[in-house]
Amino acid sequence: MVTNVVSGVVTGTAADPGRDPAAKRDASLRQAESARRSGDHAAALRLYLQAHQQRPLGPASAVDAAACGLIVGDLASAARLLAGQRPEGLADELATRLLFAQGLVLKRLVRPQEAVTCFEAALLRCGPPSQNLPSQDLPSPHGTRGLPVNPQHVSAAWARQIRRECADTLLNVLGDVRAAASVYAMDGPSTVSWPLDNPPPAVERDCDAWLGALVCGLYSGDVDAAALVSGFGALAARHLGAAPAPGARPAPRTGRKAGARVRRRPRIGFVSGQFCSSPVGFLTLGTLEHLAARADLVLFDRGSKRDWAHQRFRAAAAGWVECGSLDAATLAAQLADAGLDALFDLAGWMDLDVLRAFAARPAPRQFKWVGGQSLTTGLSCFNGFVADHAQVPAGCETLYAEPVVRLSGSYITYTSPPYRDLSAAAANPPSPRVTTPDQWAIVSNPAKIGRQTVDLVRRLAPRRLFLIDHRWRFDRTRGLAQAWFGDRVGSVEFIAPATHPQYLDALDRLDATVLDTAPYSMGLTAVELRLLGVPFRLVERPHRATMRELHASGHAVAPRFDHHRLQAEELLHCSTAVQ
Fold it and tell me: Does the first or last residue of the chain, that is N or C, have fewer Cβ atoms within 10 Å of its Cβ?
């Protein structure tokens, strides 16, 4: 959270009682600092802006003020407060904070290339990764708890958070896996050079560095499934499995509170940061709406996006809990207090604090379902990993720490957005349409274009190649395509839709066959391609594979995607089955 990222002590001079404007400005700064420390970031930002109008803030105060702007979502004010601030001549710690704050603002303003420049400059001031990794375990930086106060942890904590934001920008905004991996590389410029299940001691102690390397391996194709599973399992055992029980009391083993009257309807919880128009939203909403007719749903929302899908999720919920800023122990306590009969994780490796909370066993039955579900969580606290026979074929169960629960149909359903009715196609997916030969397309985050995909495109040497994803609008991302394909492709056309309606329209007009990405296969994309009748070609997969490799092949054989009622019944049975 931004609070831990750019917090610090405002430096200023004592007010001169003989000069009213200066005294008024200093009073505003003192009040702003007090409000910021008490957590009233909106009031603090207003006071900082008042002082800034009288005379521009100094670097330390500007960083503190920008932090408040980031927290309350006022990016314009945050950018204005940081404008003109330069790191030259500042002490290293303050210069690092300033560059990091500027990078965060630029990232939120969707200017990722400039953001990365700031993050990289900040990391240079922290020293090489091998020097700024911790000598002992660092506290979790998530939530709103602030930076570690032990001085020997300050540089390591700053470097840790900057690396995380820099790698996230490179991987998820610009789609550059190699560059993201280099942020965590200890001994090389572009790749992680150590076994993923046995990292150097400093990396082993830093959960973010270890996870960053694993995620890069998940996308790149340089690591096989068994090594990835081993790496994620080792990280889970080291950093997730020992999550504290909520408070001083143990997590409950039953959804019924002592002395409570027996409920006729089960009480089922779901945790996600994507209760909105998102992969989790499109693939679970219809099922949860049907499940709400048979059970009381309590949705624990870790996100901030508000749209049509968010409204429908809220309408289906008997209880709604905003918990985006909670750390693992506090979240586990809140989950335990809800008196749930069952609990579903819809975040997976996208949210480590959720996994830590689940490790505390806040509900008697716990399941991993849609959301960050490319492979095992590595945890033993789950009663089931919800999938289907295509996504986890027979013989692949040993790749999962959780018991595999296979639903009778596809493990996901599809809910049409209000701007495009695909319900008929979800009930009966159309046959793929005929497209012009020798025209191919890749529809995905460029990070999913691994070595196998690049090699396949180079062998095909298509006359035309369409690259479709919103990230292709960035020059740095387009440069990746030139490096991958060079002159082996007749022509490359970048299509960068800014919205989901524009994306669906682009797929509708596409005259090409889509190539599945490898090793990280298409998920929601494959479902929507089928519903729109766009042909796609699968690639050969290993015999033993995780869901990372099998998403598209599973969706390709699903007979329908509107089986919300059937899926709700099966999830209800999982939630209430006698242990």
Answer: C
What does the alpha-carbon distance between residue 546 and residue 397 come to, in Å, rounded to a whole number? 9
What confidence tens digit (pLDDT) does each residue in 127-144 have? 655 454 444 443 333 333
Mean pLDDT calculated for residue range 177-187: 75
Q: Which of 433, 435, 531, 447 minimizes the C-alpha distance to 484?
A: 447
What are the Cα distances from residue 158, in Å, to 122, 209, 568? 9, 13, 45
Q: Are strands 464-468 and 296-301 parallel, antiparallel or unpaired?
A: unpaired
Domains 1-109 and 423-559 share a fold: no
For the chain, the structural domain boundaries read: 1-109, 267-413+565-576, 423-559
Spatial neighbors of 430 by CB under 8 A, at least 6 apart, are 530, 531, 533
* pLDDT band of 148, cuts 50, 70, 90: very low
* pLDDT, tens digit (0-9, with 9 covering 90-100), for 302-345: 998 999 999 999 999 999 999 998 999 999 999 999 999 999 99
What is the architecture of the domain spanning 267-413+565-576? 3-Layer(aba) Sandwich (3.40)
Annotation: CATH topology of 423-559: Rossmann fold (3.40.50)
Q: CA-to-CA distance for 324 and 317, rounded, in angstroms?
A: 17
| Tally of helices (H runs) and strands (E runs) in the chain | 24, 12
What's the topology of domain 1-109? 1.25.40
Rounded CA-CA distance 223/152 in Å is 35
**Which value, in Å, is the radius of gyration of the alpha carbons in the chain?**
25
Residues 531/536/541/543 CA torsion (nearest 10 deg): 50
- Give the position of tokens 């420390």: 37
